[in-house]
Amino acid sequence: MDRPRRTMLFIPGNNPNMLQNAGILGADSIILDIEDAVSITEKDAARILVKSAINNLDFYGTEIVVRINPLSSAFGVKDIEEIATVQPAALMIAKATEEDVRTACEMLAKIEDEKGFELGRIKLFPLIETAYGLENVYSIIKSSDRVVGVLLGAEDLTADLEVKRTAEGKEIFYARCKIAAACKACRVDAIDTPFADMNNCEGFIKDIQTAKSLGMTGKAAINPRQIDTIHDIFAPSEEEIKYAQSVIKAMEEAKEQGKGVFSLNGKMVDAPIIARAQNVVKKAKLAGLL
Amino acid sequence: MDIKVPAKAGTMESSDIYIMVQPNDKGGIIIDLESIVMKQFGKQIEEVILKTLDTLNVKNVHIVARDRGALDYTIRARVETAIKRAI
Question: Are A17 and B72 a contacting pair at CB < 8 A?
Fold first, then answer.
């Protein structure tokens, strides 16, 4: 976790108006989309426009990720060849497999070498949206150390599973758990699928809370109006931060006194509690709350 | 770079520019520009189009441009797209 990724906001890659405002919307990351948001006849235009936007616009520190087309399509390879030359922070690979990640990694290494870029600077975000991708998410992440996170794409996944997508999201319970566990095991971010119904505020809040409770570390957004709600729920609460700080303070005092084990408010504090407290403080700092 | 077939790129939406290119048999560059900010930025838009053509090494072309308030990065991208579609 090198930076907060509570929100990743999708921006259509062939829309100049939305591209030029993307940096001021407050998302931690923006995903410039040249896949599903762009028709087949406009892929070339979107690629050129996104390149021009990355080269010329100020995104005010927002992380720039470009969602490219599947490498199995006619566009994916060309997307990497073109987009890598303007060095976005990361490429998001649609319908990713281990082979796709390795291919992207090899292509990026070649481009970075040819252009004199820092090797390994461009990161990868596999998009898990097929039954195959879900069952192999751990090995997909492990395919390259460029992978810094995974995004769950529930619409395509449920289509592949031939199940109905619902607001309650029972059908993606397993996917969320599996992705969260794999990402935690590899120490990368687990980004939850976007919530599509902009008029269902209550459902949206429940959806974020569920994703967080299952171990997802952030959520994709499809509308700027969703950003603040996602940030509020994914940021550590004031109570969590205060408790984490008290655990760390007690740990430091115990160390000074040469104690291996200590208690706080009458409860024993062990290694997992300390690790959790350190993680909360780190997240709070990354989110600018400390 | 020679223009072989007519081609277009961009849209008439806000902040975009619609570009049509076609061969200019008489030689040279002709730009037919209309913009919602013609008075303020007409010359600048033409300059961006000319510079982009120069970068792409295009010497003979007839360009029709309908601007809806595009920033320079969009103008460059749309001209490049139209030219690449035309060669």
Answer: no
